[in-house]
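Support request from a user on the community tier.

User writes: "When I paste my structure tokens into the form, the page sometimes reloads and wipes my input. The last time it worked, I copied everything first. Here is what I submitted, just in case something in the input itself triggers the reload:"
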């Protein structure tokens, strides 16, 4: 099934980006191993947790996804991730292979900026103490803006002349320049609407162009700030400072190393842990709760027990989770993603082979305001669609909007209209 949109992970060296990426792709529901390097960008599959439609219809026991997994109505849906190697200040000028890395970002629909809030790494990722990580938030956005603005200003004279000569409107001219960043005419129209510019494009000042680029960057690259290493003693003051400067909806507190540690222990059968959860249970915990076998978990030495207790106190009980799973969820919220469930039969929700009682085998993620026709194209490609049925067998129109709980269970009937 299609796995776009694409979420890019960015951050300076030693911010914990690779650890975050590995934890996002190393879910219990994973379908493969995805090795990474730090030189060239890598595509990988992460897992976004969503409420599954199976819970809505009380058929969770028969929900068997083709990809990912579903546990008690909480579904892990594959989503494509892009690992962009560590950026450094001056990337827009080519420092640290910056132009190549920035160029890779243009494919992303949203960004996750992993920020080291411990203050123990400087702007280039070198060990230090007392660094202000709010600077990292500012410079990354600045690098993207200056890169786009620099590319635009190099050609601005010829852009204006052509704009006047062919009597184009501002949307057409800017889309011609920004299409390489994955923009659409709708994106440009939203940018111009937000700014309310009345001056003709050929008379725009440098300040106006900078405004346009800034607004375009916010529109095209919605960014989650994954404030990492929250268990460090210096993290609190840095988190507080960043929280005062940024939209709280863009911030997620996380400890990627804690998530990786817990998942490793769970695989080794030392603890019972579900990714993204507030709780982790040891053998002793389960015995106390009435299970004489301790869930079949292994015994741990005192050192390992103490590490888990510290992690509970410093991360899980204090923040509610390690935050890693929530990072992808927040990116999904910024994009307004809607999970849609294509099925063969809208009465039984089956989509597999005849005789199988498995339901909701597939799930695709589409952007907000997508239509039934958009979903059909994503799922069926160029196959002709005679008509489409929604939940309960009702016919839905190709221009109907899909949303959670509305037109999100669809059966496409192939054939000529």
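"...and here is what came back when it finally went through:"
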């Amino acid at each position: 099934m299609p796995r776009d949109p694409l979420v890019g992970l960015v951050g300076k060296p030693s911010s914990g980006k690779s650890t975050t990426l590995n934890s996002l792709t190393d879910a219990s529901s994973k379908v493969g191993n995805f090795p990474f390097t730090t030189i060239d960008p890598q595509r990988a599959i992460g897992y976004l947790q969503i409420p599954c439609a199976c819970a809505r219809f009380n058929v969770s026991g028969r929900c068997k996804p083709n990809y990912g997994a579903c546990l008690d109505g909480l579904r892990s849906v594959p989503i494509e991730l892009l690992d962009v190697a560590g950026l450094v200040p001056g990337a827009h000028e080519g420092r640290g292979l910056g132009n190549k890395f920035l160029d890779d970002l243009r494919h992303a629909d949203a960004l996750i900026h992993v920020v080291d809030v411990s203050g123990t790494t400087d702007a280039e990722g070198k060990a230090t103490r007392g660094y202000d990580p709010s600077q990292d938030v500012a410079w990354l956005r600045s690098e993207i803006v200056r890169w786009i603005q620099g590319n635009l200003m190099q050609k601005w004279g010829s852009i204006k002349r052509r704009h006047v000569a062919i009597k184009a409107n501002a949307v057409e001219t800017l889309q011609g320049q920004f299409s390489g960043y994955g923009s659409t005419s709708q994106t440009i129209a939203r940018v111009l609407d937000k700014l309310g510019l009345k001056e003709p494009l050929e008379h725009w000042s440098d300040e106006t162009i900078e405004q346009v680029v800034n607004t375009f960057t916010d529109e095209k690259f919605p960014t989650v700030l994954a404030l990492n290493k929250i268990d460090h003693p210096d993290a609190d003051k840095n988190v507080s400072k960043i929280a005062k400067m940024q939209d709280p909806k863009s911030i997620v507190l996380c400890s990627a190393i804690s998530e990786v540690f817990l998942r490793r222990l769970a695989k080794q059968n030392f603890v019972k842990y579900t990714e993204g959860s507030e709780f982790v249970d040891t053998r002793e915990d389960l015995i106390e709760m009435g299970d004489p076998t301790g869930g079949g978990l292994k015994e741990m030495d005192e050192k390992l027990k103490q590490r888990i207790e510290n992690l509970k106190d410093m991360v899980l009980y204090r923040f509610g989770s390690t935050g890693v799973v929530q990072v992808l969820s927040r990116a999904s919220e910024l994009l307004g993603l809607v999970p849609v469930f294509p099925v063969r039969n809208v009465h039984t929700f089956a989509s597999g082979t005849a005789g199988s009682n498995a339901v909701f085998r597939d799930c695709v993620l589409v952007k907000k305001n997508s239509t039934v026709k958009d979903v059909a194209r994503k799922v069926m490609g160029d196959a002709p669609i005679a008509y489409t049925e929604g939940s309960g067998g009702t016919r839905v129109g190709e221009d109907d909007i899909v949303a959670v709980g509305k037109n999100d269970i669809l059966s496409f009937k192939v054939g000529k209209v």
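Agent notes: The reload is a front-end session timeout and is unrelated to the input. The longest strand covers residues 42-51. Confidence is low (pLDDT under 50) at residues 28-40. Escalated to web team.
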